[in-house]
């Protein structure tokens, strides 16, 4: 059967990125379950950021990883429920909560980092001989300079 997303060419671009991301996340979930690790695949970025930077607010995390604030709240709430994050009220602003890795997270980090390092090597192996990461950076840069909406409207105006 033909892959319609491939047939769409550039119009299938976002669908193919989403499909790839979904496949990697689902495979990651199966891997963690198989390894007996009770985390979700997209938590690693929060673990790594908080390990490196220490206590941070949700807004700071959101800005550093380039994810929408509500998405970061959803991730961190799940991590807190699983016991991997602790939360403290900011002394300067009681509306802000500051997140830290919990003792459970710190205890789990050596095993998690071993898994993540192996995953990184696996991705490097899969991408060997390509310049995928450079191309991805270029795509991100170009769409941050001028987004899809602006580019599409520009093209529509060319034909007017």
TrEMBL record:
Gene3D superfamilies: Winged helix-like DNA-binding domain superfamily/Winged helix DNA-binding domain (1.10.10.10). Residues 33-135 form the HTH marR-type domain. InterPro entries: HTH_MarR-typ, WH-like_DNA-bd_sf, WH_DNA-bd_sf. SUPFAM superfamilies: Winged helix' DNA-binding domain (SSF46785). Coiled coil: none annotated. Keywords: DNA-binding. GO terms for molecular function: DNA binding; DNA-binding transcription factor activity. This is DNA-binding MarR family transcriptional regulator.
């Amino acid at each position: 059967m033909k892959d319609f997303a491939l047939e769409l060419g550039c119009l299938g671009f976002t669908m193919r990125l989403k499909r790839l991301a979904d496949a990697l996340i689902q495979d990651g979930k199966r891997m963690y379950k198989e390894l007996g690790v009770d985390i979700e695949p997209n938590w690693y970025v929060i673990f790594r950021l908080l390990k490196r930077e220490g206590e941070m607010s949700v807004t700071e995390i959101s800005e550093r990883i380039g994810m929408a604030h509500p998405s970061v709240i959803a991730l961190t709430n799940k991590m807190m429920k699983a016991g991997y994050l602790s939360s403290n009220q900011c002394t300067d602003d009681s509306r802000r909560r500051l997140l830290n890795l919990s003792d459970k997270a710190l205890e789990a980090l050596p095993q998690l980092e071993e898994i993540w390092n192996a995953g990184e090597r696996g991705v490097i192996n899969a991408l060997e001989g390509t310049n995928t990461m450079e191309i991805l950076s270029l795509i991100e840069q170009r769409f941050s300079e001028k987004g899809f909406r602006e580019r599409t409207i520009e093209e529509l105006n060319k034909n007017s």
